[in-house]
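Notes from hallway chat w/ T.B., transcribed later so I don't forget. T.B. wanted the structure written out for a chain they're using in a teaching module, and asked if we could keep both sequence and structure tokens in one place. Agreed to drop them here.
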Amino acid sequence: MTPTSYKVDGIRMDKQVCIIPFHRDFLLVYIKLKLKLKLKLTPLGIAGSVDMFRILEHAMKAQMAPVIHDTQAVDTPEYLVKIEKSMKVLNV
């Protein structure tokens, strides 16, 4: 288990960092399916609010790669301030 791993009902879960590139053709198909079939939210989709879960749970393929670097979400103003400070220290 990595520092960002946890278990849900005995199943290992890892933190997902979302840099998700899609091929244009896949996005066009996905949008049509989402609108036409109303791809229903699944328990993981509701918990994570991430389209990637919806893709996986509807048997569509995705490739993921593990990384060893620590990451920080930037989804609140407080986290944004924290990341900006870190970037200044790193001169990024």
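Follow-up for T.B.: The beta strands are 6-8, 11-13. Might be a good example for the class.
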